[in-house]
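Thread: "does anyone have the structure for this chain?"

Original post by V.I.:
We have the sequence but no experimental structure in hand. Need at least a predicted one for the grant figures.
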Amino acid sequence: MIIQAKHLTRDFKIYKARSSFHMLNQILRRKGEIKRVVDGVDLEIQEGEFVGYLGPNDAGKSTTIKMLSGVLQPTLGEISVLGLNPSKDRKKYAQQIGVLYGQRTQLWWDLPLRDSFDLLKAIYNIPQTDFTKRLHRFIELLDMHEFINQPVRQLSLGQRMKGEMVAALIHNPRILFLDEPTIGLDVLAKDRIQEFLAYINKEEKVTVMLTSHNMDDVERLCKRIILIDQGKVKFDGAKDALRDLVKQSKLLILEVAAGDMKLNHPLPYAPIKEEGNRLFFEVADDAEVSQIIAASAQSYSILKVDIEEPKIDSVLKELYLSKNYQAAPRRMVIEPINP
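Reply from O.Q.:
Generated one for you, tokens below.
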């Protein structure tokens, strides 16, 4: 396992707001309330996985990422990433991970974007040949030719986030932690960054752990989902297994011969809508899919069959509202951690 965490826990002390009366005395004597933000999380992530780490606001997602990346120390529990303790072996560890926070920057605001990469080359001691080859490939993949020499302060949000992505990966890390990387981006910029991340994961075998409220990222990139709520892992498995927790209808789409639509054949199953020569049916399970296809084939020449699964965002919304995690499968830690 490339990432392991056992009973990962993080507490914060929260102070209540007070009036200004006798303020100094209150500051000296005030007592904080302990809030457990991450509560006994166990994780096992294999090399090359692309994992969506999801949950509602204040679930503990960003705090977990900060502990895994070495920014925060856990209150309790153990972490081993690449055989290292993130908070204790920070210098060696930083060479092997990339981190991108959607609301923070690691670029130099007044310098041209290319100069920021040159500075990172010096910081990470990247050989010139490797740096040049890697940077040229990233510029091509992210279509950065037009703005690579502009100061960072002049870049649009989408352009800056492309730069942030390169900055997080220029030193060839084995693991990439992403916290809301596409927040606020337009469709084109988001699409290019998603393509880039898919490439990095597939071609360079970079292990990626993603937190995002943008469900397009999750649908397109993540094969595995870990769902956290109130600091605890509630689900750990494949996207399809997550969908199975919520009994939402699938959408069966039958494309039929255009001439058949004009004949207005009666169907034993009524479609919820028709568009051109396509018929749309809500279906609950595979048995109903088979029944509708068989019945429709009696009257129509079926050219194509598509089934659309419920969208991840609607599944998560229903789970968050219902808190119905009882049937959720979990991956358990089965190997001891040696930090």
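V.I.: this helps a lot. The first strand starts at residue 3 and ends at 14.
O.Q.: and DSSP finds twelve helices and 13 strands in the chain.
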